[in-house]
Amino acid sequence: MEKVKISIVVPVYNVEDCILQCLQSVVNQNYDNLECIIVDDCGTDQSITLCKQFLNSYDGNIHFSIIQHKRNLGLSAARNTGLKNCDGEYVLFLDSDDWLKENAIKLMLNPFNNKKIDFVIGNFDVSEGKNIFPKLFLPEGEFAGSKVFDSYSKSQWYMMAWNKLCRRNFLLDNQLFFEPGVLHEDDLWSFRLAVCAKSFYVKKCVTYIYRVRQGSIMQDKVYDWKKHHRAYLKVVEKMLAQYRSFDNSLPEIFDYILTFTERHIFYNHKIDVSLKLKEYYDYRTLLSAYSKNFRTLNRASRIRHSHYLMPTIVGFGLFLLIFKIKNL
Hints:
By secondary structure, the protein is α/β, with parallel strands linked by helices. The chain contains twelve helices and nine strands. α7 runs parallel beside α8 and α8 packs antiparallel against α9.
């Protein structure tokens, strides 16, 4: 397996305070056959200058390259650029403010030995502060068939794109690119990943360190509910389009989309009830074309999502009651 080439994609945008630690973690890997594609997304600080200085002083076997966008296109486009330009058999997305444990690549590559799996997911730690993301709630080992999407729908593995070593051909064959211009792009990408993957492997050891930075979405003190509401509407719309593309109805996927929709109607618990009603109405409008698909759900799911089948005000009232009971 040492001969297999691994591609690491690092999108770079205004991370001058941490990019060197990220690149050093790539150099520190105890695996030689690596390429690292740095995508310059046209930031306004010295990030790329630091990258170039780092590479000028680097003397090793890892093949580094920098691909420059003509203008700032965002994280999704930067990851897509890296994926389209890499040629490793396996691909890993590494955010430029995070870093890898020194044995990450070797540990994540090992399960591909004698196994036809689509991706390997490792565990992660947070560099400082409280972990705001769910970790892995699965034992180490392989998961295949219906267990792939079932485990994802139960939030047993995290939706972030990083720290997943994927077969490049699997990503390309299923057109698993990131949606440009969509906030919460990882929600959509990981949903598609879970839908398309036939199997994956869990490594319970920590292979990735996530840095919580001030100014990130999760750290924003002022939550722009309108912006995030529009973003989640777009994500749900894309999920439904994916669902519609299947030849056969898959109730477990439709059930997840409904649950995802409900979860993000109330993403911000502090917003005014009248605004929540507006969100609820928007989602109902989007879901109305799929009312026939409710028949594919089992009895428990139909009861859980029954508010969607009622008039908007009545359905919203029931949903609000359920929400209050759950959060007492």
